[in-house]
DNA sequence: GGGGCAGTGGAAAACGTTTTCCACTGGTGG
DNA sequence: CCACCAGTGGAAAACGTTTTCCACTGCCCC
């Protein structure tokens, strides 16, 4: 059941059948129709493998997720971006081949997938320190795009959120509401969600002439335990120093924070405001609905794929680095702080911020 | 950089190089070594695509997960079985191509992947009612194995847990501890986790001459809300009818139950015992560690893959249906009930069960 | 009427393997 | 000394496409 049989049945040559399935090839409508009809009657389906061999590409991108990415302990971020990638790939007639598990941490497995011809390139995510994956791919001239993180190698293409700007925007939102003591809840250091978001946070504070207080930005990890203990420390501060708002640099962190606060019988946003970042699906359904920065997941995935394709065509096209804006989504988890000692400086600043905000 | 270049460099013919990479082919150790050396020097890597073309198989199995399987709202079950599949495939030198997302619900997308030659067969999971996926694959003689569910079509191969036996074992465990009022928490009907597990539960009760009480087996869904409301109803029962143990037919349900009970300030297992089913990773780390039935995920995945491969070789080998035993894992979430009115019938039965248990 | 030209379809070479058959070698037993 | 055999390596045919070149057909315009 090959292209030959169709050609025989339609009474044309083999090459013409190939052209009949290529919308850009010049075949008269009549012939095209006749060939297509013959193909359907024969139940012919072109072989992707044979096509891949002559074209020298499989139209498949390998997506390298961290090991165990689908585990519920993993932030929902991965599943969300995964769906976005799937959709973006479908539109571009690309296949996604999932490369995950602990065997993918080392570069050779991925590399062999590429040299095999099974993948034309890779989309990958944050790698733990000491991982040789990205350097190895770059050195081997393998098309690769890093998603939602950044790299220092100028050859590396990446697509990330402009985290400085987004953290700035969220901090500004909280300041506008009248908060002055805004705690920052980050994860571990090396990820792009941490450093730039801290920077945006501090910049916004500075603009509003609010002194940065390191007691409100405790170091910690993404682990629920770390988040919980930091919240404990923050709530144990004397009332005048206690934060009136929690800016979690990640929705996953915010979700934990919400749960912890609920356990402590603190009301959000009445007793304390909570803001997240990412707008993962589902955070709008929390109680209260989470105020957060929306990542344009679809756009991110689309750009990543496009960047990858252009590298596949010409490897020298790599090194494009995209920072996309996130959008503030105000929901129910943030509100002006209750009247406390920390409120005294509010009135003047609030009006000032209002005009900036518009 | 093809097999030809290696042949030239090693001074042998093209076919000999191919054989040198096939461990079963007859090539003298000397020649083989020489060829391998030449290949390494040239940086030669065999093309999986060319191989697939002549062999007519891609050594890739499509795994069709329910849409959005990685979302955290999805039971961790999927990510666990996914990891097991990945591992099993690696051992068998097979690739896994993930086929998920809402576009996979309809059969044509999967089918075209098969006719393409990109997949040699599929592993799939529970399908919503009205899905044409499995019938369509079977009708098209596509190798397919259903995992952790069952189908009525005799052509369908599946690998599932012997849920009747496992539910029986867990119910027995709770009876042995002295529980007489054991509530069952199921999900929606059509899944194999529900009907057979209910059957095993009832059988164990009957054996122990404990009357089945439909008030302890309320219908509901997998949704947290449904679980919560059923627990509410159960706890509102008059003390004599209130359950002393909760058998959740799924760890995901048990996890929710644990959370709900914690919110109600009920201690597990002192106030009420909770048992799960599946032994998802992480349930051992809960507080308290969950007593559950361990699914042999690795074995399940291995059998599934083997069943699929045998179908790929000969489509008439399909229709094999495997039921694997689960293993009782007793941890901290189950304990004998406190002395209550329901305890009076305990003593005789307990001793009787003890001997059965050994 | 002839020379280009656009439009169409065919012939054939590639793509990089696997696999089958065949030939050659040297050793061994009759 | 010859025939057979095991062991080894080569030649060549597949596998099913895409793509490049080439030829043919009308057609238009000079």
Fold and architecture overview:
2 copies of one chain form a homodimer. Chain A is 42% helix and 12% strand. Chain A has a 6-stranded parallel β-sheet with strand order 2-1-3-4-5-10, sandwiched between helices. Chain A has a 3-stranded parallel β-sheet with strand order 6-7-8, sandwiched between helices. The first copy, chain A, contains 13 helices and 11 strands. Residues 341-358 of chain A have low confidence and may be disordered. Chain A is elongated and about 90 Å long. In chain A, helix 10 packs across helix 11. By secondary structure, chain A is an alpha/beta fold. Chain A binds chain B through residues 45-50, 52-53, 58, 68-74, 76, 78-80, 82-83, 86-87, 90, 95-98, 100-101, 103, 112, 115-118, 281-282, and chain B through 45-50, 52-53, 58, 68-74, 76, 78-80, 82-83, 86-87, 90, 95-98, 100-101, 103, 112, 115-118, 281-282. Chain A binds a DNA duplex (30 and 30 nucleotides) through residues 2-4, 12-16, 18-19, 22, 26-28, 31, 46-47, 49-56, 117.
Instruction: Name the chain pair whose interface involves the most residues.
Output: A-B, 39 and 39 residues
* Rg from alpha-carbon coordinates of chain A: 26 Å
Largest sheet of chain A: 6 strands, parallel
Distance between the termini of chain A: 65 Å
The helix count of chain A comes to: 13
Shape of chain A: elongated
Largest sheet of chain A, order of strands side by side?
2-1-3-4-5-10
Q: What are the defining features of this structure?
A:
homodimer; 358 residues; alpha/beta; 12% strand; elongated; DNA-binding
């Amino acid at each position: 059941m090959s292209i030959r049989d169709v050609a025989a049945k339609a009474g044309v040559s083999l090459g013409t059948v190939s052209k009949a399935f290529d919308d850009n090839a010049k075949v008269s409508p009549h012939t095209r129709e006749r060939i297509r009809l013959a193909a359907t009657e024969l139940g012919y389906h072109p072989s992707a493998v044979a096509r891949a061999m002559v074209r020298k590409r499989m139209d498949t991108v390998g997506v390298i997720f961290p090991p165990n990415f689908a585990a519920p302990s993993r932030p929902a971020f991965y599943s969300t971006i995964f769906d976005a990638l799937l959709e973006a790939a479908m539109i571009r007639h690309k296949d996604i081949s999932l490369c995950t598990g602990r065997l993918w941490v080392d570069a050779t497995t991925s590399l062999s997938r590429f040299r095999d011809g099974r993948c034309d390139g890779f989309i990958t995510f944050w790698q733990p320190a000491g991982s040789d994956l990205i350097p190895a791919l770059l050195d081997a001239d393998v098309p690769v795009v890093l998603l939602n993180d950044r790299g220092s190698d100028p050859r590396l293409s990446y697509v990330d959120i402009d985290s400085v700007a987004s953290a700035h925007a969220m901090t500004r939102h909280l300041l506008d509401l009248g908060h002055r003591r805004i705690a920052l809840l980050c994860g571990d250091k090396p990820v792009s969600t941490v450093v730039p978001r801290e920077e945006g946070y501090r910049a916004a504070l500075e603009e509003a002439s609010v002194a940065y207080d390191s007691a409100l930005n405790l170091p910690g990890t993404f682990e629920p335990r770390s988040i919980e203990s930091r919240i404990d420390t923050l709530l144990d501060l004397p009332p005048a120093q206690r934060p009136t708002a929690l800016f979690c640099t990640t929705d996953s962190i915010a979700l934990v924070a919400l749960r912890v606060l609920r356990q402590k019988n603190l009301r959000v946003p009445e007793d304390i405001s909570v803001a997240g970042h990412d707008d993962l699906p589902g955070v709008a359904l929390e109680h209260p609905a989470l105020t957060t920065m929306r990542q344009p997941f679809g756009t991110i995935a689309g750009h990543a794929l496009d960047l990858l394709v252009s590298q596949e065509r010409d490897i020298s096209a790599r090194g494009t680095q995209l920072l996309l804006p996130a959008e503030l989504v105000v929901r129910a988890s943030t509100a002006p702080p209750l009247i406390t000692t920390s409120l005294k400086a509010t009135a003047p600043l609030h009006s000032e911020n209002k005009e900036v905000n518009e």
